[in-house]
Amino acid sequence: MKFVGNLCCIIFSAITLQAQSLYVGEFNIRYDNANDTEQGNSWAVNITAMVLFGISIGVLICFLGGLMAVDIVPRKATGAALGVVGMASYVAAGIQDVVSGWLIDGNSTLVETLDEVTGQMIQTTQYDFTPAASFWVVASVISFLLPVFNWKYRKKNV
To answer: What are phi and psi of 63, to 5 degrees?
Structure first.
């Protein structure tokens, strides 16, 4: 069975939804006070953004990780193509995990506050997620550009 449909519009819509929902979910949150509802820090906005992000990731995994990989290689090489895409996905996820950890740890500050009950100084760590969130949005844009350069490429008749 051969899938001959045009996936460009679906992929473009899913990638656009992914980038927008990631941006809204990450940059709409004020990390200093979880109960603050100013500047869009509402549960409804954040939950909706993360749900839309999850849906768009599911669509992209199906289309880019499966159909596009199978569509651009000869039929005899489809298993290898899916394996290469799967391995590349795991390697990229590992790199993203390490880079995100470096960005989050590198932008943390140790803050001393006075405990009003005991009168002792308490050290807490405050994290700034802005560099990591920027990295995630840039990675999302790069994931948009990679299929744009490849969706006109089709396998040769074999």
So the answer is: -80, -50
Q: Say whether pLDDT at 30 is over 60.
A: no
- Which residue in the block uniquely carries the two structure tokens 């990731």? 57
| Predicted confidence (pLDDT) per residue in 142-155, tens digit | 877 776 776 666 55
- Write down the domain spans for the chain: 8-150
Q: Which residues contact 41 (CB under 8 A, 6 or more apart)?
A: 28, 29, 30, 34
Least confident of 5-14, 19-28, 32-41, 105-114: 32-41
Buried b (16+ CB within 10 A) or exposed e, 69-78: bbbebeeebe
Which of 94, 92, 23 is CA-nearest to residue 64? 92
Q: How many CB atoms lie within 10 A of CB 37?
A: 11
Closest CA to 60 of 155, 153, 151: 151
Q: What is the CA radius of gyration of the chain?
A: 21
Q: Which pTM was predicted?
A: 0.62
Longest dimension (CA), the chain: 77
Secondary structure of residue 105 in the 3-state scheme: helix
